[in-house]
Amino acid sequence: MSVFSDLLSEYITMKDVGVYPLSQFCGLDRSSMYKIINGKRKPAGEDVVRKMAQFMQLTPQEKIDFMNAFYIARMGAEVYYRRKSVGELIETFSCREGKKEYIFHEAEIAKLELNGGSGEIPFRGAVHVRHAILQLFFGEAVKEDGKISVLVQPDFDFAMELLQVFGEQNPNLTIQHLFCMNNNEKMVSMRKNYNLSCLQKILPICACGCDYRAWYYYDNVAARLNEFRLFPYLILTEHCALAFSADYQNAILFREETTLRMMREMFEGYLKQSEPLFERLDTVQSQLGYTETLIRHFVASDSPRYFFQRMPCLSGLLTAEMLERHLVKEMPGREQMIRAVAQYAKVMQTQVLDKKTTMFFSEDGIKSFLETGRVGEYPKECYSPLDFDERIALIRRFLALRDRANLRMIRETKERAEHALNISVNANEGYLLFQTRTERLIYLSIREPSVLTAFYDYLESMRPEELCTEEEMLERVEAILHEFVACHSREGSI
Predict the structure, then answer these.
(1) CA-to-CA distance for 160 and 461, rounded, in angstroms?
(2) 3-75 with 96-277: one CATH topology?
(3) At residue 409, does pLDDT exceed 60?
(4) Best label site of 108, 206, 356, 453, fewest CB within 10 Å?
(5) What residues contact residue 215 under an 8 Å CB cut-off, 6+ apart?
């Protein structure tokens, strides 16, 4: 029996469904239906499963559970939950600004006076431990050059959300984060991919604008968290070290300088034995250099390549004339940037845009580009918005690429294109691109193999129902262009 056959049997019994009429409705013989019910055969496809759901008159939630059970049976639980985790990460990324912000009362926080004295202070109970963590973070966040080093798992929501909030308040804050990545994929009982859930917790801090760096090491997380360890987690600041238990119920604060020096040396030693989770590229020059190198690697590889962007990938269509017209005149290295972007566009058009390349985009991304005249891959401060005619021409040129590359329009989603996560990957490497809350662009080179594989597999396996057909795509984009031109005519100019 499988998850799907178990649930199918349950629904048949619960709703008093006859097997023979169910078989007839689904276009199957009774023998085949019994084999599906008994878990000896999988349904031929989604259409059969949807017919089953329709005949059994499942509620919306029951239908969702039923389809999910089918996907688990078809692709395996590990693959299903990994893909589900990637989808959730992408869909919720733009909601990172909706995190609850904590209200900080400086006078109340100062009551603990953790930075004074040299003795140890024990804390018992989650409330007191969290209060201590709050003060330690606060004490560094108010400094012009504050630095926080943390050895804690990303699923400790309290600490991660605090780091995000303080990072937003102080862009000069430095955060060093060391954590364990799972080396055992069999964590499906948690109904999530652990490594991807870590990334989901980390990205909001990357996007908050401070200097956040993450390192990882491998272990069996499930076994590690179940071990008897007194104080496996640690927070280090200039004057304090807080060691606390895995359940966040007990902690000891150390303030003696000799002890602090030893802990700092140990933490730095751990970093040297770990791997950086990503390479952060937050200057235009480093971004251009990296993307050029990555594209050349894409070309050299036989692997399919995927560009997932809410806003169409238009940078490869920019002309030297457009760059000359719109790049800020006073920008340092302006001529070098024009040459670099032009070279990138040339490589994209002559070597990358082929049937190995798939470009995902959204309807909202088309609208956003037409409304703003902004190309999502470059910082806003570097250039002025494209003109009306240029916007139309770029979208037309983008649509024309469908004869050379694979264009796929994502069915409408809730998130806005300018706040979404962009992904560029092949089987060997890739990067993430997004805006900080101050609209600064951040490129993160994906270093960890399981995360890279997860993104690649997700984009490679996107289901047809998640995407528009080519006819739908052309019809929708033409309608958007028509409305944009009509609006322009009514308003006179952009």
Answers:
(1) 31
(2) no
(3) yes
(4) 108
(5) 176, 177, 178, 179, 270, 271, 274, 275, 276, 277
| Burial readout 415-431 (b: 16 or more C-beta within 10 A, e: otherwise) | bebbbbbbbbbbbebbb
Q: What average pLDDT does this structure show over 417-421?
A: 70
Residue 416 has pLDDT above 60, yes or no: no
Question: How do residues 340-352 score in pLDDT, each as one tens digit?
Answer: 777 777 777 777 7
Give the C-alpha separation, 209 to 437, whole Å. Answer: 7
What tokens appear for 27 in the block? 């276009």
Give the pTM. Answer: 0.82
Contact 353, 405 (CB under 8 A): yes
Helix (H, G, I), strand (E, B) or coil at 1: coil
| Residue type (1 letter), 206 | C
Beta strands in 426-465 (DSSP E): 430-435, 441-446
Where is mean pLDDT largest: 112-116, 132-136, 186-190, 327-331?
132-136
| pLDDT band at 224; cut points 50, 70, 90 | low
The two tokens of residue 459 are 């984009």
SS3 326: helix
d(CA 317, CA 344): 10
DSSP 383: B
Furthest C-alpha separation in the chain: 80
Residues of the chain above pLDDT 70, percent? 88
DSSP state of 348: I
For the segment(s) 3-75, the CATH number from 3.40.50.2300, 3.90.190.20, 2.60.40.1840, 1.10.260.40 is: 1.10.260.40
Domain range 96-277, CATH class: alpha beta
Q: From CA 379, how far away is CA 365, in angstroms rounded?
A: 17
Compute CA 158 distance to the chain's CA centroid, rounded to the nearest angstrom. 20
Alpha helices in 147-273 (DSSP H): 157-169, 194-207, 221-226, 257-272
Identify the weakest region by mean pLDDT among 102-106, 161-165, 305-309: 102-106
Q: Which two tokens stand for residue 40?
A: 């000896």
- Domain borders along the chain are 3-75, 96-277, 281-446+463-491
CA–CA distance, 95 with 20 (Å, rounded to integer): 47
One-letter identity of residue 218 = Y
Q: 423: Cβ–Cβ under 8 A, 6 or more apart, which residues?
A: 90, 306, 307, 308, 309, 430, 431, 432, 433, 455, 459
Of the candidates 242, 372, 356, the residue with the CA atom closest to the CA atom of residue 310: 372
